[in-house]
Every structure is written in structure tokens, then in C-alpha cells.
Amino acid sequence: MANWLFKTEPDTFSIDDLRARSGQTEPWEGVRNYQARNFLRDEVQVGDKVFIYHSSCKQVGIAGIAEVVREGYPDPVQFDSNSPYYDPKASEASPRWYRVDVKFVEKFAEVLPLKTIKAMPDIVEVGLVKKGHRLSVMPVNDNEWQRLVQAAKRTTE
DNA sequence: GCCAACGTTGGC
DNA sequence: GCCAACGTTGGC
Fold first, then answer.
1. Where is the EVE domain (predicted)?
2. With a 7 Å cutoff on the CB, does A132 touch strand B?
3. Looking at strand C, which nucleotides approach a protein CB closer than 7 A?
4. Quick one: which residue's CA is nearest to C10's C1'?
5. Which end of chain A has less Cβ packing within 10 Å, N or C?
6. Domain residue ranges of chain A, discontinuous segments joined by +
7. Tens-digit pLDDT profile for chain A (157 aa)?
8. CA A127, C1' C12: Å apart?
9. Taking the model in full, what pTM does it have?
10. Tell me: domain A3-152, CATH 3.50.50.60, correct?
């Protein structure tokens, strides 16, 4: 069982949107980076936990937790010429991009800010705190996952 | 909106 | 296969 962090721009799709979805479930589509794609296609499994991270917004940081309910399958929007995610080089026979389905688990009372995460001495491995952290899907090891959850809850007490 | 850091593209 | 140019990401 692994842990992940998925980035999203809350103006486009936030953790509140995920919670409001029917079944509180949503396909995580539109990932167009090969390293992130490889995680979605090869490693993310049903039951894995996922931090939902809000980027490019007022409160940058981890907003809550979701759970993987369907493992990687071809992202249909790559075949849709009307979609901004359309990829003319992808075909159904050899899809290029993948997505997983995630389900809402919980929203933290307060976003755990990136600034706070960077200041935590035990958080050194997760891509967020590294230079040029541009991956939109990244692994989080067990130890850092637990510390981040603790920190997120502590800010609410 | 700025700009640094990074990934991708394409000419050679 | 190199690498400059270009586009995108994302914090500030």
C-alpha cells in the first residue's frame, strides 16, 4: 500500500468539488507528464491514500485526503478532439495518458500550508520540498505521510 | 504578473 | 543524440 500526493488548482477542481461529486468520486484526468503518467499507470493501486494538494491559489498546501477506487486506465479525454487534453498522437490501440479514480475521504479543517511543510524538519523526501517540484503526481513515504497528517490535524486544535 | 525551474520540441 | 528555443508550472 502506497501514499501519494495529487496536485490540483482549486479554481478548476478543489477538494470541495470532489466531496460534492456524486459518489464523492472523480476521475483524475488530464495528467500530461510522463513521470506522473508512469505512476498512475504502473504504481497507483486501489486502496492507496492520496493527499489532495491545492496549487496556484491563495492557500497553497494540502487540503485533505482521498482514496484510490480504480487503478490506472486510459484517460478518454486524450481521444476527444474537443477536449483541451486532446492528444493527436494517442490512439485507443496505444494510449499515451492514464487516469485513476479517487474518492473523497476527508477535508482538513485548515489547509496545511506549503510554508509549514517546508519548515518541518522531518519532511525531506517528498517532492514538494525539493527544488523545482513540478510533478503533479508524487509518492509520499509512510513516515512523512503520518507526520503530515499529524501536522494537518494539529493546526486545527 | 513576474520569473526561475523545468520538460518538450525540433533543427541539425 | 545534442542542445537551443520555447512553453508550462507554480510560488510569490
1. 3-150
2. yes
3. 9-12
4. A56
5. C
6. 3-152
7. 899 999 999 999 999 999 999 999 999 999 999 999 999 999 999 999 999 999 999 999 999 999 999 999 999 999 988 888 888 888 888 899 999 999 999 999 999 999 999 999 999 999 998 887 889 999 999 999 999 999 999 854 5
8. 19
9. 0.93
10. no
